[in-house]
Specification:
Chain lengths: 421, 421
């Protein structure tokens, strides 16, 4: 479809209307009586229903995609990319733009080839096919998955300019799967018996195997063996056909292409939970087993990739908040770098271990802002400042940075990643 | 990545294990100690993180797509296609496989070209740009959208063989948008005043314009001017950049590419609400203004496109239920064509005007079943049989068939669309 002369006429017509007014009274133009041509999109046919059996975003949204940062990792096989959270709204993350983290790349594994073994300290070691898994009772839950290294570059100061890059190693989907508890019971684990000191060791079918240890209490509580996300099959890059879901805990434990679950009498102390995914403290010692993602939030708009383009007057400040320990109960927003705070509106009451969308419907006077958000969860925890975190943990950390993020918004509406003390 | 000799070895190994047992005790195989080769997917690299900036489903899921039925409409421009609900689980419908219904095709309209006019009986007729809309307070809601003609072919008996085709003109997404009420107030409508007899007439920017009248009470209640679905921009085929959301009411009123909202002192009696989208009764008279989609449900698995392939023993029967008048409170499932019923498990408590997933975790003895589901909503309404509907409305209808669906499942696990009386 051509957007030729008629389009230009229409735009000129619209621009001839009353200019946009500042303030709450009117944020639109009065109709222009001079528009006489029919626009091309109103005078011809569009696409038929068989044009795109599986649809993609419209070409105008080509920039709303996952992006990696080349200098962050040595190669793109063992690397990460970032969800374009600056351009999304609501809470659900479409699979197509949900961040990826691979240790040896996203593998292709068919349902026919898929097997899941449960072994170790169980009465009946078992191997499940994909079809077997479909015969157990399923649950549906919306959960966020956040990489432990999300915001990791912020330990050393404001380095990446954009919410996608500082906070985009997170996604939020509706999972369908079988409780891990059900499969462990199927393998003869006596979940009513004494399981103190028992763990599960979980690993994936990719070359990295990415093995992790999970205490039995968590394994039996809410972990899911998931095969659908947002209604459809998991995408290849999210673990097709089956991944582990570990609600609220760091994404590295959400084993993709999960192939084996071993019941053990202690943690495995694997590479992924010793040399990696531990927190190096001030004194150089490493803190391990820091699985839960603490309460955190970020303003997604305005932000460096989503500047204010409309001038003074009504402004919607929006962002995301989450907690791996429960539900978000409140989010405050500051325009002055944390001196004063206003409580934001939650789009819905916070849900356990799921993203919560917040809005602050406000006015912008055109002056510089130091925008921050501060999340609170139902354990009573309040998101700390970056400096509060550094006080306890020093500057050696990579993981678990849930400090308050600051965007400097200047008079032209542009934003950048800054630090305030 | 090649699936060569190693794959065959692995499959042969697995098949050598203990055969699948019937019954609840074990639904998997014991591990096979003979697997010695490393599978190809575990011995090489997969895709890097920059392989697919916006991802698509894995190739093994190529059949999980929207499909149209060629003989249903004269052409594919003014036509429909169907969501593959037989292959989905949970409740969210990804935009890429959510059904489409166009009257003159899916048009391409940029945000820069987009305008929304509010005119008619308002104090201040206004034209909004896309950027204007982003300055008003937003809401997030998950709602189903069902075409009035969904299951329409079932009036004349079981004709289409598959849940995708009988019930697939429905999708369920998380919308972000501005309440229509807010924009009407911005145009000076006194929503506290006497609005009796007032309507809005809404139309789209496509050639069909698809104009519909909506009573003011509904317009002010819960209608949304939406610009995101499942977190991201609306897809072209779902009305990019802006569509109307009319919760619980027939999909034809959910105007895509919405360009104009006129406040009127009565309904417009447009083509789309007189010659179309009215219900021709037994006596030939037409019933109009039947907007709400009554409570309805369907078993999505097993179903003709999702047969039972695993033999006797544990079986998960699953499906969807919804009501345009409120929340689903209960779904019953029958295996004997409605003689006896068991109450299914709802994955979550029903939410207002959103899809509800139900499961019946049961055993299959390998005998023939006449599978049905029956939804109830919080108004006390119980989904009727097709015959009960026909008794009231005769056989002239196309729209609003919410009768109970029956799948005949035979001893081999295959299913077909049948009628029971």
């Amino acid at each position: 479809m051509s957007n030729g002369p008629s389009r230009r006429t229409f735009l000129r017509g619209a621009a001839a209307g009353t200019a946009l007014l500042a303030g709450t009274a009117a944020r639109a133009q009065t109709p222009d009586p001079l528009i006489t041509e029919v626009q091309p999109w109103a005078s011809g046919f569009g696409d038929p229903v068989d044009a795109h059996p599986y649809g993609m975003p419209i070409r105008f949204e080509d920039d709303v995609v996952r992006r990696n940062v080349e200098w962050l990792t040595a190669d793109t096989i063992s690397s990460i990319n970032f969800t374009p959270i600056h351009a999304l709204d609501g809470t659900i993350t479409p699979q197509g733009c949900a961040f990826e983290r691979h240790h040896s790349g996203a593998i292709e594994l068919s349902k026919a080839d898929y097997r899941l073994m449960i072994n170790g300290l169980v009465d009946r070691p078992l191997v499940f096919t994909y079809a077997d898994l479909e015969r157990f009772p399923r649950e549906n839950h919306v959960y966020f998955c956040e990489c432990a290294a999300n915001s990791g570059m912020e330990w050393a100061g404001a380095q990446l300019n954009g919410a996608q890059f500082t906070h985009g190693m997170i996604h939020n989907m509706e999972y369908t799967g079988v409780p891990l508890r059900t499969l462990l019971e199927e393998a003869g684990l006596d979940t009513a018996g004494d399981l103190s000191g028992k763990w599960v060791y979980v690993e994936g079918a990719d070359a990295s195997s990415n093995g992790r240890s999970i205490p039995m209490e968590k394994a039996l509580d809410d972990c899911l063996i998931a095969f659908k996300a947002n209604g459809e099959a998991l995408r290849k890059e999210h673990g097709y056909p089956v991944r582990l879901v570990v609600p609220g805990w760091e994404g590295n434990m959400w084993i993709k292409w999960i192939r084996r679950i071993e019941v053990t009498d202690g943690p495995m102390e694997s590479r992924e939970e010793t040399s990696k995914y531990t927190d190096v403290m001030k004194d150089g010692s490493a803190r391990k087993w820091t699985w839960a993602m603490d309460a955190k939030s970020v303003v997604t708009s305005p932000s460096p990739q989503a500047p204010i383009t409309h001038g003074k007057g009504p402004l919607v400040i929006s962002g995301l908040a989450w907690s791996g320990r429960g539900a978000i109960t409140r989010v405050d927003v500051s325009k002055d770098g944390g001196k004063t705070w206003q409580t934001a509106r939650l789009a819905k009451p916070g849900e356990k271990m799921a993203l919560t969308r917040f809005y602050l419907d406000t006015e912008w006077d055109g002056e510089q802002m130091l925008l921050q958000s501060r999340a609170m969860d139902d354990t009573g925890y309040v998101q700390p400042t970056k400096d509060q975190l550094r006080e306890v943990r020093g500057l050696n950390s990579v993981y678990h940075n849930n400090g308050i993020q600051t965007w400097l918004v200047n008079a032209s509406g542009e934003a950048e990643n800054v630090e305030v003390s």
